[in-house]
Amino acid sequence: MKLEQRIEAFVKLGAEFIAILELLESSNNEPKSVFGSISTQTFINNIYEENKWFDKNSVTNSFKANSKLLEADKLSNWIKGYDFSCISDPKNILVIAAGNIPMVVFHDVLSVLISGNNLILKLSSKDKILIKLIRNILIDIDSNFESKFIIIENIDSLKCDIDAVIATGSNNSSRYFMQMFAEKPKIIRQNRNSISIIEKDISNDNLQNLYKDIFMYYGLGCRSISKLYIHSSIKIENIALQLKDEYKLLDNKYYRDNYIYQKSKNKLFSKDYYDNGFALFVESEELNSSVSVVNYEYYNDICELYKFINSASDMIQCVVSNDFIGFGESQNPKLDDYADNINSLKFLEKL
């Protein structure tokens, strides 16, 4: 496939994503061919049975975010600085997927396939349905993807040699991947957290946009804000009470159970927290927080805070503030917003 064909295929995939969004937002519950001749509601129910965090709202948000990437101008501008126009010897790239948010592996899928290489995707057990749907749509668009996009259930079922690895997982699994693929070129991603800086002049609109940065996907993504740095002139309750729960987080049993558990645990250990009715705000130096908990810390000197952020860059995925990523945008990464700040296209070009 030529580069122009690959770009065109993903533009068509973006159009299919938009069509799926229309189905997700429609009340029409007739069987749909794109979902394998089952209804939209059955499709959503099947995804939810596979992963209880993948409800209709989360799936919809993921399709929205990814559809915005698949525009012809964006794709062309993204890839034009790389030499992928003529790939005479495509490499076999093993991608090991995470399953914390819907279609979290999509950027890796896009990067490998648009570069002209072969994708061998080891699925996450928590995100099979959506990824298989993407593969089926791509094959319908261009049958060449049937051999270019291979899905495996486990690494032991590999039937070909691999030339490079892109893997996402926990800190523990990353050590395992580093050892397993010691001789291969690789990108191995680990746990990271995202933060937000709340300055004293923050607007109410930005605070409500911050809600999306924190709670979209129930706070499970590496781009989900887990820690707030708040100017010392602002009280935490003034932040927490401005956040309106538009996602109705407590309707999800698993989020609700976490919220109740965290509240009980903090009470048991006499730990101070502020409860706004759907999340707990805990003063802590830790970057990482549990589901339904948002850590916060006060600051006085923004320059000192920036120094800390620079020193902790290998633990931070993104920063939401007036000077970094805009409020409400952390869950809408651009094509060149690479996970862990590792440029996957540059990695693939060097193979």
Strand content: 15-25%
Mean pLDDT score, rounded? 95
Uncertain stretches of 5 or more adjacent residues? none
- Numbering strands along the chain, what is their spatial order in the largest sheet? 10-11-12-9-8-13
CATH fold description of the largest domain: Aldehyde Dehydrogenase, Chain A, domain 1
* Shape descriptor: globular
C-alpha end-to-end distance: 19 Å
* Whole-angstrom Rg: 21 Å
For the sheet with most strands, the description reads: 6 strands, mixed
The tally of structural domains comes to: 2
Q: What topology emerges from the helices and strands here?
A:
Blueprint: H1 3-24, E1 31-32, E2 38-39, H2 40-50, H3 56-67, H4 72-79, E3 92-96, H5 106-114, E4 118-122, H6 129-141, H7 145-148, E5 149-152, E6 164-168, H8 171-180, E7 186-189, E8 193-198, H9 204-215, E9 225-231, H10 236-240, H11 253-268, E10 274-275, E11 280-283, E12 293-299, H12 302-311, E13 316-320, H13 344-349
Parallel strand pairs: 3-4, 3-6, 4-5, 6-7, 8-9, 8-13, 9-12, 11-12
Antiparallel strand pairs: 1-2, 10-11
Task: Give a description of the structure.
A hairpin with a 4-residue loop joins β10 and β11. The protein has a six-stranded mixed beta sheet with strand order 10-11-12-9-8-13, with helices on both faces. Strands 5-4-3-6-7 form a five-stranded parallel beta sheet, with helices on both faces. With 351 residues, the protein is an alpha/beta fold. The mean pLDDT is 95. The chain folds into two domains: 3-191, Aldehyde Dehydrogenase, Chain A, domain 1 (3-Layer(aba) Sandwich); 193-320, Aldehyde Dehydrogenase, Chain A, domain 2 (3-Layer(aba) Sandwich), CATH 3.40.309. It is globular and about 60 Å long. α1 (3-24) runs antiparallel to α3 (56-67) and α1 (3-24) packs across α6. The longest helix is centred in the N-terminal third of the chain and has 22 residues, at 3-24. The chain has helices at residues 3-24, 40-50, 56-67, 72-79, 106-114, 129-141, 145-148, 171-180, 204-215, 236-240, 253-268, 302-311, 344-349, and strands spanning 31-32, 38-39, 92-96, 118-122, 149-152, 164-168, 186-189, 193-198, 225-231, 274-275, 280-283, 293-299, 316-320. The chain is built from 13 helices and 13 strands. 39% of the residues lie in helices and 17% in strands.
